[in-house]
Amino acid sequence: MGSKEKQGSKYIIEASFVIDGVVERHDVIGAIFGQTEGLFPKKFELRELQKSGKIGRIDIKLKSEKDRTEGKIVAPSSLDRAETAIIAAAMETVDRVGPCEAKITIDRISDVRVDKREMILKRAKELMRDWVVTETQDIDKLLTEVSREDKTVKPVHYGRERLTATPDISKMSEITVVEGRADVINLIKAGHKGVIALEGVKVPRTIINLSKKKEVTAFLDGDRGGDLILKELLQVARPKYVARAPRGKEVEDLTPGEIEAALSGRAPLEEIEDLGELSKLAGELRGTLEAVLLKKDGSQLGRVPVSELVERLKVEKTVDTVIFDGIITGRLVDTAVGMKVTTLVGERMAEGVKVPDGLNIRVFSDLA
């Protein structure tokens, strides 16, 4: 879901799964959320726990081969030991992913704090061995370093929802809205001002009020969660500009260079493709093995069979968006980049395909 953790994780649930069929990451996550729903009171359901930050973003790694999918699940938890064990046991009850039979097995529940203590102890020993105090240390230099550290910008809480923000947020006429606290901190490190976090999928009243008074750039993760948050923003707090992390990446993990590239490439809202229209086209194309080519203004250049798509792109000069009922392959991605296509939408993406900067890739499930 792209949720940001609000509390530090204490435990890590690690599990393995075997599925009799070919599925994708979002199918596994959907099964975990769907089949554990209703087992406990609402406040103890996975969706609610993830919204509150008590269960972090669930990471799925999988590999499909010979009509069989195997993989690993990693879920961080800030619940207590008993609650974490209950959540882990609930995950093992999942027995189907889509139409396929599935088996999930908990491998271990590790205590993050124990691992940290071991790491700290090891590092402390190294520091003790290397600790050499010289009598010639320049005290002025030390004082300068301490003073500089004291002046480092630190995030504050802003508004009645106590959202994470830079201290200057109320003074800025232009602000950047990101998803979570870690995103704010990463932008501060990169030297940015006027940044505030949504702290969840639902847009807080504070953000809605700020959008009425300030010029807003929404800077969102390049994943399904970022897509959902953009939809919500468009309904209640429309930003003037939209910037996205590269597909599959999160703002909190970007380098300063990647942050600058994303923000400098921000698009005015009126230039953002209508997700509703793309969703409608995806519904029309499903099962047809056809592709629709769109210009930048949204008008259609025509339809072609998927088998002829690569060759057609090589001769068309004005294609901005391609939506098609087929698999996004590395060959198609390379062709799209070469022809300066900006958006590629397919039924699903082939395993191992790398998404280059400057190309926005979505799959049909993103538009649901």
Which descriptor suits the 3D outline? Answer: globular
As laid out across the biggest beta sheet, the strand order is 2-3-1-5-4
Class by helix and strand content?
Answer: alpha/beta
The mean pLDDT is 85
**What count of helical segments does DSSP give?**
12
Which value, in Å, is the CA radius of gyration? 24 Å
Instruction: Give the percentage of residues in beta strands.
Output: 15-25%
Extract low-pLDDT stretches: 1-7
Identify the CATH class of the largest domain.
Answer: Alpha Beta
Main beta sheet strand tally, sense and closure? 5 strands, antiparallel
Distance between the termini: 14 Å
According to CATH, what is the topology of the largest domain?
Answer: Dna Topoisomerase Vi A Subunit, Chain: A, domain 2
What is the strand tally? 19
The share of residues in helices is: 25-40%
Number of domains: 3
CATH architectural type of the largest domain: 3-Layer(aba) Sandwich
Question: What report would you give on this structure?
Answer:
The protein is an alpha/beta fold and 368 residues long. The chain folds into three domains: 11-112, Alpha-Beta Plaits, CATH 3.30.70.360; 157-271, Dna Topoisomerase Vi A Subunit, Chain: A, domain 2; 275-367, 3-Layer(aba) Sandwich (Cytidine Deaminase, domain 2), CATH 3.40.140.20. The protein has twelve helices and 19 strands. It has helices at 25-36, 46-51, 81-91, 112-130, 139-150, 181-189, 205-213, 224-236, 256-264, 275-285, 309-315, 330-338; strands at residues 11-19, 59-64, 69-77, 96-97, 100-111, 156-158, 163-165, 174-178, 195-197, 215-220, 241-244, 267-268, 290-294, 300-305, 321-324, 327-328, 343-346, 348-349, 360-363. A hairpin with a 4-residue loop joins β2 and β3. The relative contact order is 0.09.
